[in-house]
Amino acid sequence: MPRPRIAVLYVGGSIGMIRNRKTGRIEPIESLVEIHRFIPDTQRDVILDFHSIANLGSSEVTPAHWIEIAKTIEKVYDQVEGIVVIHGTNTMAYTAAALSFSLQNLGKPVILTGSLMPIDDLGSDARMNLIYAIRAAELDIAEVCIALGPRVLRGSRAKKADQSILETFDSPRFPALAEFNTSVQLHPWRTVRRKRTIVVEPDFDANIASITLHPGMPESYFDAMLEAKPHGIILRAYGLGMLPEHLFPWIRKATKLDIPIVITSQLLRGSIDLQLYRKQLALEELGVISGMDMTYECAVVKLMWALAQTRNVRRIRDLMEKNLVGELTETA
């Protein structure tokens, strides 16, 4: 049988670092070819096509990089069985969400991976994670995923949870799509491979603001946010979407300015429910958009993506509250 061809897109992160034996400092690799040295066994099973996007720490990644990654995937899509994106872990969840909305109707997997340690360190997680990601890119999955370690997580549901090589990422509100053990376990709730026409829409409006509530937060902060004229706001509320009533006039002011406000929960495993309490019903009447059970990272990226599709607040509500790529659980 011919070996499957896997595209490997390099963006940066610790996985592309090596330790200088003279200085002890961690430095970027000089060439992507060096990665081949650390995974020689995989080349018996697959053909790897390397593509360099950037060589950045993930804190430097911007929506412009998301667009470049998506467009590169579009170019190589028909030539490969799957795609692996090497990326730093700190903002990987944002990039995974961005690619999920940019590359809809996938017929094959796009797997993001990275590491906490340089690839040449003894005991590094880099080699293991890269091998798992390459194997995941061959599976019967057709989604954007994150694979660090033996679990393959839906990209729009994952978030960095720990500075641990064993469980760097978690998917607190949705189970893993696949798991590697002595055999591969593929779960039935994944999207499977099928011949589909990919829909590529990598556009983002980054002019949004984000604020996490805490008790006693001065109202002047909220007014200053409106003065900055954001195109949208993510508001991280308490519990199932609780806000202090003194913020209601501010929300009304934002609504009159046609600034969509999306509420997400500060809970790790919570879901917004604007109909449970009478006070929350008023939020719906004020035009607040429910983030449902989306992760914070996904809600931020989805709002950027939705604003690039339309500036109509009603249409933005429809997009934000609709399950597009498995990112939320729609209520009946």
Fill in the keyword field for this structure.
Rossmann fold; alpha/beta; 332 residues; 2 domains; eight-stranded mixed sheet; four-stranded parallel sheet
Describe the model.
With 332 residues, this protein is α/β, with parallel strands linked by helices. The protein has two domains: 5-200, L-asparaginase, N-terminal domain (Rossmann fold, 3-Layer(aba) Sandwich), CATH 3.40.50.1170; 208-320, Rossmann fold (3-Layer(aba) Sandwich), CATH 3.40.50. It is built from nine helices and 18 strands. The chain has helices spanning 33-38, 63-76, 92-102, 126-136, 219-227, 248-256, 278-285, 296-309, 313-320, and strands at residues 5-12, 17-19, 26-28, 47-56, 82-86, 103-104, 110-113, 144-147, 151-154, 159-160, 169-170, 178-180, 184-186, 199-200, 208-212, 232-237, 261-265, 289-290. An eight-stranded mixed beta sheet has the order 4-1-5-7-8-9-12-13. Strand 12 and strand 13 (184-186) form a beta hairpin. The longest helix has 14 residues, at 63-76. The protein is globular. The termini are far apart.
Cα end-to-end separation: 47 Å
**Can you tell me the number of structural domains?**
2
Compute the gyration radius: what is it? Answer: 21 Å
H and E string: EEEHEHEHEEHEEEEEEEEHEHEHEHH
Describe the largest sheet: 8 strands, mixed
- Fraction of residues in H or I helices: 25-40%
Q: Kindly report the name of the CATH homologous superfamily of the largest domain.
A: L-asparaginase, N-terminal domain
Mean residue pLDDT: 91
CATH class of the largest domain: Alpha Beta
**SS field, number of helical segments:** 9
The stretches of 5 or more residues where confidence is low (pLDDT under 50) are: none
Give the overall shape.
globular
Secondary structure tally: strands: 18
Do you know the CATH topology of the largest domain? Rossmann fold
Question: Strand-residue fraction?
Answer: 15-25%
What's the architecture of the largest domain, going by CATH? 3-Layer(aba) Sandwich
Sequence of strands across the biggest β-sheet = 4-1-5-7-8-9-12-13
